[in-house]
Amino acid sequence: MTRSGKAAAIAVGSIAVVAAGWAGAGIYAGRMAEGEMRAFTERVPERPGITIAAPRHEAGLFKSSGQFEVRLDEHCEAASGGAAKVAVQVEYRLSHMLLPGSMMRFEWSMVPAGQVGAMLTKVTNGALRIDGQGTVSYGRAVSSSLAMPEIVLGNGPQAMRVSAGTGQFTLAGPAFGMQWKTDRIAGRGAGKALEVLNMGMELDLKDRTRGTGSLTLSVDRIGTGFGTLEGFRLVTAAAERGDRTDLTITPSLRSLTAPGQKAADLGMQVSVRDVHTASMEAIQRIASESCSFRSLKAEEEQKLRAAVRTLLTGGLALGVTGVKGTIGDGSLEGFLKVELKKADPAASAASAAAGPVAIDLARLLSSSGELTVKGNAIKAEQRQMAVGMGFATEVPGGVKAAFEYADGVLKANGRVFDAGPLQVALSTADRRLNTFLGVSMPAEAPPKADARSSDAAPVADEAAPLAPLANSASVRLVPNAAPAPAAPVAPQAR
Hints:
Layout: H1 3-43, E1 50-59, E2 63-72, H2 74-79, E3 86-95, E4 104-113, H3 114-123, E5 130-136, E6 142-148, E7 151-153, E8 160-162, E9 165-172, E10 175-189, E11 192-207, E12 212-224, E13 228-241, E14 244-258, E15 261-276, H4 277-289, H5 298-313, E16 316-327, E17 330-340, H6 345-350, H7 361-364, E18 365-374, H8 380-388, E19 393-395, E20 398-406, E21 409-412, E22 415-417, H9 420-437, H10 453-462
Antiparallel strand pairs: 1-2, 2-3, 3-4, 4-5, 5-6, 6-9, 7-8, 8-10, 9-10, 10-11, 11-12, 12-13, 13-14, 14-15, 15-16, 16-17, 17-18, 18-20, 19-20, 20-21, 21-22
């Protein structure tokens, strides 16, 4: 064989080896895909409330296909003797020939199934479906497009039309992200009209199994026969700090217009901080497994009690950390905070031998809040009434209401008020909580004289306008009455 013939043979052999390796890698990828699908159908049901039904995978050398049905809350429906109501049917097609940019390509479609799915299919004439195309990278990251056709609900000019939706999702390790957008939802009928423009969603989970990350919902404009909303946005975020989780919910609105009313730049932030993560996860897991606590087993009830106790005694804080906006030519601004202090570990350890310590919300709970309203956001007669009743004080251009509660003392606008009704409510909550936790509460001690009553005496005089309300059943905030003069005490010898 000549030198050129040998070179050609070597080249052909090399190409054959590469081709065989490439084909073998594609076959291996197909087997890996089959294994992943089998693992998926076995792993998902470990999450309560989700069941994979009728999985089918048809493997080929370089292409595969299959389908499965995802059923939601079937175990709760089965417990009550019913069938699965909510489900989706998924079909997929895989191409697992290796390419430079991806290890695998796929197409998929999803349609509603089950009882609810049959109803949705009927009212949408079978148009409700989501399709996608995506790739699997060599790093095992999955990305795909999302597409939904236009949906028409009803017939004729009164039909509700939902324009085609588009988006995408990515799945990489524990992280999951998704974006979705629908340009227009519109309908008219019975003298009413609705138009929603540019509705979108963006999900960015850092850890999808733990639910940490953010979710953003947005709408550019909502028009109805009653008014118009513009620039609505809702952001929810959850983050872990050690063994604690913080959650914030931030809604905002650029403008609101309605007959006789106009508001702009409305916003607030609701926060829940320092929540004991393991306890919250345990409560959520038990709720799912027991069908929202409807069918608790004895050991589940014990775990639930322990989780609730740890959650309440571990300390947490919640409230509206900021609210603001413009109403007409006026404005409002304020906050609300509620905090459960962490139980004293030394006291808990000292009494552990005698059994669990009863929850005492009156001791653990503290709260404060403030609201300032200016301009024509509050009418003159409302302002006068609030100030006259002691619920607010005047500030330049408006009124301000503030309160704080801690250690059994309630103050509003700098004055001490009777905290009795609030303590009665907390005591009732304590009894219910401790009954659930199986903890005996100590006998209530007779009321003691408030050592701070001397400080409250001048306050009662300042709050004289509230005196006629002392016997009103509808008003529960009553200033402390001034104490009777004490008998003179002889001076002690030094």
